[in-house]
Design a protein that fits this description.
This protein has 203 residues and is an all-alpha fold. The chain has one domain: Cytochrome c oxidase, subunit III, four-helix bundle (Four Helix Bundle (Hemerythrin (Met), subunit A)), CATH 1.20.120. Helix 1 packs antiparallel against helix 5, helix 1 runs parallel beside helix 6 and helix 4 runs antiparallel to helix 5. The longest helix is centred in the C-terminal third of the chain and has 31 residues. The chain is elongated, with a radius of gyration of 22 Å. The termini are far apart. 28% of the residues are buried.
């Protein structure tokens, strides 16, 4: 007769709030970053593939993109990592007031980025259906804009949660996950901005 063996462990000492690779949500965020990163790489690859098929870039009769909005956007995205980094560190210290302050700042910055993105589309000086150049430039901006809108929505919702009575300490781990995606979204745009807005000026 085989006796059934039961394994019993005392989990009372395990933490209720975890960060980084110890959190399942963190792994989900990493997976999403990998998927979206691949999409952005495809956009960049498509841009260079199409460019090599033209003697001039942009094609004749098409204005080169404006740089003012792109420069402002790049500066906003780069600078925004400072308050998000403070949120990341404050969350790991379980410092709720500091997380709230940082997320409020990041919410304002995210909304500003969305506003500037409208001017970036206008600065392309080309319709999406006018040529292969227009299509790939718009495709790159649209693809990254989906990331920007998603991150803005997530930031708004999470910031509201921080001020909700139902807020729990374990919810602070979401701040670290949000920060990871924020770094990807903002820093990932810098090389893409150089490709779409600066490369047409290079001969």
């Amino acid at each position: 007769m085989v006796r059934e063996t039961r394994i019993v462990a005392d989990v009372a000492g395990l933490p209720t709030t975890t960060f980084g690779h110890r959190s399942m949500m963190w792994w989900g965020t990493v997976g999403y970053v990998l998927i979206e990163g691949t999409t952005l790489l495809i956009c960049a690859g498509s841009y260079f593939y199409l460019r090599k098929n033209f003697a001039t870039w942009p094609p004749g009769g098409v204005l080169r993109p404006g740089l003012t909005a792109a420069a402002l956007q790049a500066a906003l995205m780069l600078v925004s990592n400072a308050p998000m980094l403070s949120v990341d560190r404050a969350a790991r210290r379980l410092d709720l007031p500091a997380v709230r302050t940082g997320m409020l700042i990041c919410t304002v910055l995210a909304l500003a980025m969305c506003a500037v993105r409208v001017f970036e589309f206008q600065a392309l000086h080309v319709r999406w259906d006018s040529s292969a150049y227009g299509s790939v430039a718009w495709a790159t901006l649209v693809t990254h804009s989906t990331l920007l809108l998603l991150e803005t929505a997530e930031t708004l919702v999470f910031t509201a949660l921080l001020f909700s009575p139902s807020m729990e300490q374990r919810d602070l781990s979401a701040a670290v996950d949000n920060a990871l995606y924020w770094y990807f979204m903002t820093l990932g745009w810098l090389p893409l901005a150089a490709i779409v807005f600066l490369s047409p000026y290079l001969r």
